């Protein structure tokens, strides 16, 4: 999978996380790409209000490009691949680095762990997972824990 964007020192770890996602989800992301970027608190608050109707800062926002369910494979969406690259754009993940720093302190773990958790969380949303219902939240939490554990975070 190709990762685009400005996300600092985390590229190697995010690549590992997305590789583990392939294994855990029994999915092939080699024909896909995603954008991961840090944004300011003001920007994430504005986007949160505009797209979710929530007028507050948040840690991560995902903007899926596909109307995908967790059971559907990315390969199903090949017809939407970029004509130049042949890659399927899964969507954008935006992370507030300031909120990530604050949460890392609160949860008493590293900023790297928090940023990677947020990117993974956003990525799972791009794949159609959510946490609106309790059962769905349990599934998503279990996946996140398993994936982060496998990359030692």
Question: Could you characterize what this model shows?
Answer:
- Helix content is 46%, strand content 16%.
- The protein has 153 residues and is of the alpha/beta class.
- It has a single domain, classed as 3-Layer(aba) Sandwich (Collagenase (Catalytic Domain)).
- Strands 1-2-4-3 form a four-stranded mixed sheet.
- Helix 1 crosses helix 4 (111-126), helix 1 crosses helix 5 (134-150) and helix 3 packs across helix 4.
- The protein starts with a strand and ends with a helix.
CATH class: Alpha Beta
| Helix/strand order, N-terminal first | EHEHEEHHH
Number of domains: 1
CATH superfamily assignment?
Metalloproteases ("zincins"), catalytic domain
- Rounded mean pLDDT is 95
Q: How can the largest sheet be summarized?
A: 4 strands, mixed
- The CATH architecture comes to 3-Layer(aba) Sandwich
Structural class: alpha/beta
User: How large is the count of helical segments?
Assistant: 5
* Uncertain stretches of 5 or more adjacent residues: none
Q: Estimate the strand proportion.
A: 15-25%
Percentage of helical residues? 40-55%
The CATH topology is given as Collagenase (Catalytic Domain)
What would you call the shape?
Answer: globular
What are the salient characteristics of this protein?
4 strands, single chain, 153 residues, Collagenase (Catalytic Domain)
Short description:
This protein has about 150 residues and is of the alpha/beta class.
SSE map:
Blueprint: E1 2-4, H1 11-25, E2 32-39, H2 41-52, E3 60-64, E4 88-96, H3 97-107, H4 111-126, H5 134-150
Parallel strand pairs: 1-2, 2-4
Antiparallel strand pairs: 3-4
Helix pairs in contact: 1-4, 1-5, 3-4
